[in-house]
Amino acid sequence: MVGGPSPRARGNQLSSPDSKLDPEITGVFGQVSFSLVQPLFMFGKLRSLREAASHGIAASKAKVQQTATEVALLVYQAYYGYLLATSLEDLALEIDEQLTKTLEKVQRQLEAGAPGVDNVDLYKLQTFRGELEKQLNDIRQGKALALTSLRTLLGLDPELPLTLAETKLEPLPREPAPLAQYLADARQRRPEFAQAEAGIKAFTALVRAAKADYYPTLFLGVFGSLAEATNRDTFTNPFVFDPLNDDVIAPVLGLRWKLDLGITAAKVDEAEAKLGQIQQKQALAEDGIPFQVRQAYLELLQHRANIEATRKGFRSARQWLVAAMANFDLGVGEGKDVADAAVAYAKLRAAYFQAVYNYNVGWAKLEHAAGHDVATVQAVLR
Hints:
By secondary structure, the protein is an alpha+beta fold. The protein has two domains: 1-12 and 26-41 and 217-256, no CATH class; 44-216 and 260-381, Up-down Bundle (Outer membrane efflux proteins (OEP)), CATH 1.20.1600. It is 65% helix and 12% strand. The protein has seven helices and four strands; from the N terminus they run ββααααββααα. Strands 1-2-3-4 form a four-stranded antiparallel sheet, with no helix packed on it. The two termini are 50 Å apart.
């Protein structure tokens, strides 16, 4: 839409007393130009762009699910990490209580000059207790960090109380299915596959859309111009056209062809390069995810075997500790025997708790690798 001064124009198309070289402004004009264009055929470009948009949305949704499952795995690790720290703290307090009783008795025997007791027993017990106190401080710090991580991942207020469903770290009572089942489930459920497939479809459509620019666009349009001047007469003679005082409107059927082939080729190359990146990601998923499932499955079996091994070990060490303390109370054992038994019991008991933690988190990793956590995440997102 434009407007401006209108020079006077008298006479007819053959002669006029006015001149274009020396115009006299006696009025104003207003003009509106418009064009309405509807593409009719673009060699599949619009259809390809719609497909690309649709598959792009699907790929984005799969990416959201993938990120959500990764966060869920971190929640499992923080949850069982807190239970692990709690169990180790209870173990350290149990050992500390036993060592305190033994130290007090050694000190009383030394003060009484009892035979079979010397300062070596006292120093060894004190050394182990000092190391135990350091370990207890580290455990409590880890416990606080695990709780903080859990609150952060869950989006909870740090000031609000948090009560866990479990109070002790126990092995999950489950039996794994055959490995082939987890491999099949991963292929069907993992969001990485859905993301890659949707991405390939989206960029394939974008490649087609970019190649469509090599061809012309057939369109139907309406072009027009509406103008009126205050100092002009309106002519009906079809051979006389006054751009400042005539209305024109006409439907057209046209063909538009951009011959910038170099730019079009660059756009096609760019789209094909992005398509190649997505195809490479799909190939990595095809090889990497089955490996991830196998690794998680074998690690789970290893952690279960470690639970049994360390359970037998700490039970034997517990009996050793009880026997060493009984011998020491009866005066037929030494304080260092109690310390040695306590060290062995503490190490094996801690190794047992670590094996349980690895086993429970191993279940979460296997569920994640097989895509079983996707349904849970989808329910949470809904």
